[in-house]
Amino acid sequence: MPDRPILELRDLQTNFYTRQGVAKAVDHVSYSVHAGETLAVVGESGCGKSVTSLSVLRLIPDPPGKIVGGSVLFEGEELTEVSDQRMREIRGNDISMIFQEPMSSLNPMMTIGNQISEALIQHFGISKKAAFQKAEEMLTVVHIPDAKKWLHGYPHEMSGGMCQRVMIAMAICCNPKILIADEPTTALDVTIQAQILKLMEQLQQKLNTAIIFITHDLGIVAEIAQRVVVMYAGRKVEESTVRQLFAQPKHPYTVGLMTAVPRLENFLEEESAPSRLTEIPGAVPRLYNLPAGCAFVNRCSFATDQCRQEKPPFEEKSPGHWAACWQEIGS
Amino acid sequence: MKTSTPQEEAPLLEINNLKTHFPIRSKIFSRVTGYIYAVDGVTIHINKGETLGLVGESGSGKSTLGKSILRLVEPSSGEIKIQGTDISKLSKSRMFPFRRNVQIVFQDPYSSLNPRIPVGKIVSETMKVHGIASGAEAEEKVQKLFERVGLRASQTLNYANEFSGGQRQRIGIARALALNPKLIIADEPVSALDVSVQAQIINLFMDLQEEFGLSYLFIAHDLAVVAHISHRIAVMYLGKIVEIADKSKLFKNPQHPYTQALLSAIPTPNPEVKARSRELIEGDIPSPRNPPPGCRFHSRCPKVLDQCRVEVPRMTEAQPGHWVACHLC
Ligand SMILES: Nc1ncnc2c1ncn2[C@@H]1O[C@H](COP(=O)(O)OP(=O)(O)OP(=O)(O)O)[C@@H](O)[C@H]1O
Ligand SMILES: Nc1ncnc2c1ncn2[C@@H]1O[C@H](COP(=O)(O)OP(=O)(O)OP(=O)(O)O)[C@@H](O)[C@H]1O
Ligand code: SF4
Ligand SMILES: [Mg+2]
Ligand SMILES: [Mg+2]
Predict the structure, then answer these.
(1) According to CATH, what is the number of the domain B13-101+228-324?
(2) Quick one: angle between helices A190-207 and B257-265, nearest 10?
(3) Pick from A295, B97, B307, B325: CA 20 to 30 A from residue A248's CA?
């Protein structure tokens, strides 16, 4: 792995200013990803996974949102400071994103062929005819049957799985260096999900793409990523290699996630009757009134007075394994 | 808890060859030009105190099956027996007393909770309509129910939009419980919830089952969730059940190629078993407007035979209690 990451976030901060108050949706988040590597970002709904990556691409709606601090370095270039024009170039050529909701990010009025070829014409400066040919190729790459026919079809005529594959085709058609995939398979059936994960893996091998994969599914993390960042209430609470995380999670929230999720392996034994799951009590707190100390304190079984008063620092608990927790968990 | 109840007792719910076909009408003369074969010949039963899990891809007909049992959509043919009585042909008024025994919980109870009425009132109204309780008695019952499902009694006065997703699901469960049902059809009740909250709701379902001897038809697309809560599991594909068995049998020894594909497609939350080779099936689920002839899975089946393309495979008992519809089995 090359020493220098292709993308590096340092202390990124994004706030939303709303009537209820200021939401620190991204609160001093740092992470990096190398070429050819897959970084998974996990966490429950509302913890800031999407806003972090939208901040990287400067796609935060302003108002109410604003990047208020930190830095995003892409191959040494400071993205928080480049011109809008340059940012558009980077979005078109170098960093592309598969959005969480395919239907809302495809243009319903435009044929599939026109949508893909538009990007190709801009990127490669090729003719419309050549672009359509390439678009058909891309649709075939993402396993759309009858690709030629679908060039003239519209998004609403496709199933959710097909739309998602079109999104992937669009995201990869310009050979990006970084692919940010925001829950690209959450709405899909597992059989389709498996197809798409395989597709992304093949792509990465071919182009040495860096992938940031946002998900709440620990199974997917284990399957596709090398490193992982766990977020909670706008902050990074744990970071390590995937193997380390699964072997010995160091943050009580991660421990909770791992024990709360039902596992298929447990049901291979004869007569395995239904059994209770380990719950995490309560729910994710609203960003407008976070506890003073650790944001997880009200749900944590390890919590002490210190946790209630002071924010735990993000520390290296063992080589390459970081967590933000006052307690020593799982060591 | 036992995996099945003694043989002597008749099943709580018995469905025989149930079909629900939605007519497709032409725009101009609204003539029927074809059918969507959403549920196409389903036979299942659920015993008292048992959970039957129902899995299958989007569009396979799971919700339609659930709604057909309650006759929220009208089945085209077949039998729906609740404790031995076929309700499929009863008039709405004659069905009413039976209908009370079966309740439904939806994926997003928000859309089914009136935003302008306090949630407690929504539940007490249901009781009133079915003549279970009214006035102060109903109110007290609702408060008890709220506490039972993990809400506070005072929250009966709040409105639906003041609750989180997990709490709304608890309200949906309280409403279903209000009529002392014997069977609850739970249609993706945890699919929209975060993992940590999902565990709470799954546990609640299991606790209530033990306490009240409830039966569930538990619909979900997440096999691990279904595995956790169910005694038996039915796998549905394009309107038909393709395999049904005790869950341990189903997972240890899946017989139908579709079940095998589903199982191997699920990512395992364990990086040490990553290297496992998987047999992926290609393509999407075909449209239920013109399902493939023969075995409906044949267009995606890695083991397809010539026979599969023309002949519909019958459900056969591969092993005791393990039923499969596949020409190979
Ligand atoms: N347009 C907005 N206006 C106000 N607040 C917003 C806006 N968009 C996001 N937020 C806030 O930012 C927080 C983080 O949202 P984000 O979309 O990043 O969550 P997420 O981790 O991607 O969750 P999910 O898993 O549901 O996609 C949310 O809790 C929300 O309060
Ligand atoms: N009221 C209706 N009128 C016409 N077609 C319908 C109706 N309800 C469902 N369908 C069709 O019947 C088929 C089965 O739908 P159903 O909602 O039962 O599937 P499902 O297995 O519950 O899927 P999902 O996992 O997406 O919830 C689909 O093709 C759907 O479009
Ligand atoms: S800092 Fe305290 S409250 Fe926060 S996760 Fe660690 S032990 Fe729990
Ligand atoms: Mg998101
Ligand atoms: Mg459904």
Answers:
(1) 3.40.50.300
(2) 50
(3) A295
